């Protein structure tokens, strides 16, 4: 989230306190130092106040160890109370995204800061970097996050979930990509028209008659051959029987002699 930049010298026309938003950036001048902090002229009718805890990151023992009267400083709006005509400032640059500003579904752009086997960490301007799990990097298969991105790459992601207690942000890259369409199956080759007609249409009457005649002739030939074979076998049996009779009769005659 970008902040507005307003210099003290550019505020010839007073800005209403109601119109000042959080994180608005001012270039101000230290007008007074107290034990509790510093008074800063930011070009408005009401000066801003920087508490000692907001002079720098980490502990501060004395205000004068950090700022001096007349020094030009960068400050950001923390809180505005129009009724009390009070503006609270900070010299610690605020996060682009605070926890209460992060919500599932929002699209954020960030820089890849670290790669692991299970995914990539992306700096999106929050207190902690978000994690894009390897399964959320693309719709296709990748063996390692390094197959798709490297450290320092700028990527666009979408917030899937936020856990403020654990300070975890789950991101996705593939939700911003189009889902690939499955490949179309090749069309079956067309069946030849004549083959279709042959399979579907019944045989014509003349064709049926010709087939019946051919079948009848084959059966008649079979019967003739069968009858001839039976007749031949009968003759052979009869001849063989007569021969056996003659042999038996001669054998009897020889015994009688």
In short:
With 257 residues, the protein is an alpha+beta fold. It has helices spanning 193-200, 205-256; strands at residues 5-7, 25-33, 37-41, 48-51, 72-81, 86-90, 107-116, 119-123, 130-133, 154-163, 168-172.
Mind sketching the topology for me?
Layout lengths: L4 E3 L17 E9 L3 E5 L6 E4 L20 E10 L4 E5 L16 E10 L2 E5 L6 E4 L20 E10 L4 E5 L20 H8 L4 H52 L1
What can you see in these coordinates?
There is one protein chain. The chain has 257 residues and is of the alpha+beta class. The protein folds into 3 domains: 86 residues, Nucleic acid-binding proteins (OB fold (Dihydrolipoamide Acetyltransferase, E2P), Beta Barrel); 78 residues, Nucleic acid-binding proteins (OB fold (Dihydrolipoamide Acetyltransferase, E2P)); 37 residues. Helix content is 23%, strand content 27%. The strands form 2 sheets. The protein has a 5-stranded mixed barrel. The protein has a 5-stranded mixed barrel with strand order 7-8-9-11-10. A hairpin with a 6-residue loop joins strand 8 and strand 9. The chain is rod-shaped and about 160 Å long. The termini are far apart.
């Amino acid at each position: 989230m970008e902040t507005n930049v307003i210099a003290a010298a550019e505020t010839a026309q007073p800005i209403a306190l109601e119109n000042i938003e959080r994180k608005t950036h001012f270039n101000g001048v230290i007008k007074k130092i107290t034990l509790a902090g510093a008074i800063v002229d930011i070009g408005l009718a009401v000066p801003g106040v920087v508490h000692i805890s907001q002079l720098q990151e980490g502990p501060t023992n004395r205000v004068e160890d950090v700022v001096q009267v007349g020094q030009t400083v960068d400050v950001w709006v923390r809180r505005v109370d129009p009724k009390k005509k009070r503006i609270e400032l900070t010299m610690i640059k605020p996060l682009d995204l605070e926890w209460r500003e992060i919500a599932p579904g929002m699209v954020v752009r960030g820089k890849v800061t670290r790669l692991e086997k299970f995914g990539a960490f992306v700096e999106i301007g929050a207190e902690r970097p978000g994690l894009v799990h390897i399964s959320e990097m693309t719709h296709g298969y990748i063996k390692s996050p390094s197959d798709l991105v490297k450290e320092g790459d700028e990527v666009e992601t979408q917030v899937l979930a936020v856990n403020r207690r654990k300070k975890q942000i789950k991101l996705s890259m593939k939700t911003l990509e189009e889902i690939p369409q499955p490949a179309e199956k090749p069309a079956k080759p067309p069946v030849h028209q004549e083959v279709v007609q042959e399979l579907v249409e019944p045989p014509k009457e003349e064709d049926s008659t010709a087939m019946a005649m051919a079948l009848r002739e084959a059966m008649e030939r079979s019967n003739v051959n069968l009858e001839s074979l039976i007749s031949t076998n009968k003759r052979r049996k009869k001849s063989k029987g007569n021969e056996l009779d003659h042999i038996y009769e001669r054998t009897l005659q020889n015994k009688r002699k």
